[in-house]
Design brief:
about 700 residues; 3 domains; Immunoglobulin-like; 21 helices; binds alpha-D-glucopyranose; about 20% strand; single chain; alpha/beta; Rossmann fold; five-stranded parallel sheet
Length: about 700
């Protein structure tokens, strides 16, 4: 079997084909059924081998809030039921371990803001060790959906708007969860979701349909899934939406022709929650029998919760709507992942692990470091941050000033608020000696206390229930009442530092003008309070850069950096150009933007090599010309100036994080290969066309040193 496919191992293939040959039709169907102990638990279903996997979830919206965690003894007891079945095929226990298990890390959108895939990999690895110690072996993550509409609540769960950054994060998180070998008891099987195009939901309304051209589907939305498959991801999950009128759970072209035919994916696909049954609502199936046949034939191997496969597969086989070969192929994919996950050799969990592996001090310490690296400094007038002892009496005010569970963000079902130090206590602990902090969670108290303070830190933003699945908004401004807070406090005339806790970009245009400094902390996780204190008081610098464009107003959405130039670009002279009469066209902050506690200069863009001989190297010199050591995310963009399709005005093709001491200069080099310039044309073919290309080595997507080359 000549293959470098990470999911094809000879000993696995031998085992699963031998096992399949012994299975009855019912046992095969059982493997395609994911079951949940919702309300009642039918142990017989397990004993008869009629449930291939169990999802540990309290319901369809497990992500909103916490839900009872799994436990190794419960999983072991259920596994014993599986071992009472005729063939003793082990259970695969699934759970949404999205950005941490008990040690909750910053939300995935914040993690992308670190522009540090290795930190995301480390976080996923810690999450895997904790979740597997409680009996979980499969996580429904990473979510790799590109998102260009922050009204959509699930923008919190992905890596933002850019394909290149999204691919880097997708691969890193898969590697973190699965490790070198899925069969290691401390590693999880990962699941790239939601295949594909979920983020184009019209109006930012979760579950709504959307349209994508073939070039945009191929070049923007599919690549992060391809990156996950190339990283060896064990499973994918089909999306809820209908894309171009075809429900993702019934899209054979994407689930079979592309995923398996073009990419060679050998794992299995699970539907999203009841999305097989929901094909009836989509209007493409008359009943569960038809829905089951449609989804299964499209390439969805396992049915999450709807039981349409369990109840109708046999009839679909009898009627010929589904063939035994198709069923065998799906069962082999599921058995393949179970075998690669080590479940046949190691189906039970060591009961002593969770006390050792969960909430280790080193995990908390890493969570604090990661949270600092995700925070984005958006404004720092007069270098007021980091706070010095010039400000001895500081008021910390706002509705989130005592945030505890809120720090965890959406999709933290195993996070426990009691594990989180409340923000006010964490800030007090981080404040230097001689600095007095007072706190006010109500605006009247805050106004009164502000008069006696040297500086006010306002903590505004979103509760996690306003973020994540099915938490969409029509207004990207601060939540109701908070703009008034900021008006009242800023009217007093003392220096104001605005800290925003959120699961999406917010249109804080007015507040950015009012405050002296703005620090975007996202939902920073279990150690977010301490991390915020470290950054505010200068024990560390904020490391983040925006992974998504920040709009000035909701009406600008969708707005993203890699847009087409149009025939009347905003850079054109005169009035005939794409614009609004009531708002500047430019975003509030561009993709890639972020400040630090020092300053960087870019100089001497140069190039070496010839594309025709393989690749061209572009270099620039970056200098730290400020007072402190600092980290810079040097970004590399290209533009295909003239092509057979209108092309984006910029596309990210590389980035490097570098740390420079004050005064230090470093040459940063990016290599560009011909295949990096390929794009999909209307008929679906990938091409690379000769012509002029612009390049930038830049601090963000709207500035930098510009050069060009001719291909
Ligand atoms: C939810 C989500 C999906 C999650 C699944 C199981 O509806 O769409 O991301 O993994 O159901 O909780």
């Amino acid at each position: 079997m000549p293959s470098n496919n990470p999911l094809l191992k000879p000993e696995t293939e031998e085992h699963i084909h031998h096992l399949l040959s012994k299975m009855t039709v019912d046992e095969k169907i059982g493997q395609t059924n994911q079951y949940m102990a919702r309300g009642f638990f039918d142990a017989d279903l397990i004993r008869k081998g009629l449930a291939g996997s169990l999802i540990n979830a309290s319901g369809a919206l497990t992500g909103q809030g916490t839900s009872r965690s799994s436990s190794a003894d419960v999983c072991n007891d259920i596994q014993k039921l599986a071992f009472e079945s005729r063939l003793k095929i082990p259970q695969l226990f699934g759970r949404d371990v999205i950005h941490g298990y008990r040690t909750v890390f910053p939300i995935p959108l914040a993690q992308a803001a670190s522009w540090n895939p290795d930190l995301a990999r480390q976080a996923a690895s810690i999450a895997a060790r904790e979740a597997t110690s409680d009996g979980i072996k499969w996580t429904f993550a990473p979510m790799v959906d590109i998102a260009r509409d922050p009204r959509w609540g699930r923008v919190a769960e992905g890596a933002g708007e850019d394909t290149y950054l999204g691919c880097q994060m997708a691969a890193a998180v898969v590697q973190g969860f699965q490790g070198e070998c899925m069969s290691n008891p401390e590693n999880l099987v990962a699941c790239a979701k939601h295949y594909v195009g979920y983020g184009v939901a019209e109006g930012g309304r979760d579950y709504d349909g959307g349209e994508l051209s073939e070039p945009t589907l191929r070049d923007v939305y599919l690549p992060p899934f391809h990156a996950a498959v190339d990283a060896g991801v064990g499973t994918l999950m089909s999306a809820f939406l209908d894309l171009n009128g075809v429900p993702a759970t019934a899209n054979r072209r994407l689930l079979t022709d592309v995923l398996r035919g073009e990419w060679g994916f050998k794992g299995f696909v699970v539907s999203d929650w009841e999305s097989v049954h929901e094909l009836i609502n989509h209007g493409v199936a008359a009943d569960d029998g038809e829905a089951a046949a449609l989804a299964f034939h499209a390439g969805v191997d396992m049915d999450m919760i709807s039981q349409a496969y369990l109840n109708h597969m046999a009839a679909n086989l009898d009627s010929g709507k589904v063939s035994m070969d198709e069923l065998d192929e799906a069962v082999l994919r599921i058995l393949r992942i179970k075998h690669l996950a080590g479940l046949f050799e190691n189906p039970f969990t060591d009961l002593n692990r969770s006390n050792r592996d969960i909430l280790m001090p080193s995990s908390r310490e890493f969570a604090r470091h990661f949270a600092r690296e995700c925070m984005v400094l958006l404004k720092n007038q007069d270098d007021i941050l980091p706070l010095t002892d010039a400000f001895k009496n500081i008021l910390v005010a706002g509705p989130l000033v005592h945030a505890q569970g809120e720090m965890l963000g959406t999709w933290a079902p195993d996070g426990r608020p009691a594990d989180v130090t409340p923000l006010s206590e964490a800030l007090k602990a981080a404040a230097p000696a001689g600095v007095q902090l007072r706190f006010a969670a109500h605006v009247d108290r805050a106004i009164e206390a502000a008069h006696a303070s040297d500086l006010i830190v306002l903590v505004m933003g979103e509760h996690p229930r306003r973020s994540g699945e099915n938490a969409n908004v029509t207004d990207l401004g601060l939540p109701p009442g908070q703009a008034e807070w900021v008006d009242a406090i800023c009217a007093i005339g003392k220096p104001v530092v605005l800290v925003v806790l959120a699961g999406r970009p917010l249109a804080i245009t007015r507040q950015v003008q009012q405050a002296h400094a703005v620090l975007y902390a996202w939902h920073p996780g279990i150690e977010g309070g301490g991390a915020l204190g470290d950054v505010l008081f200068g024990k560390a610098s904020p490391g983040g850069r925006l992974p998504i464009t920040f709009p000035r107003a909701t009406g600008q959405v969708p707005i993203y950096y890699n847009h087409k130039n149009t025939g009347r670009p905003i850079t054109a002279d005169g009035d005939f150009k794409t614009r609004y009469v009531d708002c500047p066209s430019a975003p509030l902050f561009p993709f890639g933007y972020g400040l630090t506690y020092t300053y960087f200069a870019y100089a001497n863009l140069s190039s070496r090599g010839e594309m025709n001989n393989g690749s061209i190297q572009f270099s620039a010199e970056i200098t730290n010309c400020g007072p402190r050591p600092g980290a810079e995310v040097v970004q590399f963009y290209t533009r295909d100036v003239t092509a057979s399709l209108a092309r984006p005005i910029r596309e990210l093709k590389g980035f490097q994080r570098i740390t420079l001491q004050p005064g230090e200069t470093r040459k940063v080099t990016f290599s560009l290969h011909r295949e990096d310039l390929a794009f999909t044309i209307s008929d679906g073919r990938k091409v690379c066309e000769p012509g002029i290309f612009h390049v930038w080595i830049a601090p963000n997507s709207s500035s930098g040193l510009q050069g060009q080359f001719i291909l």
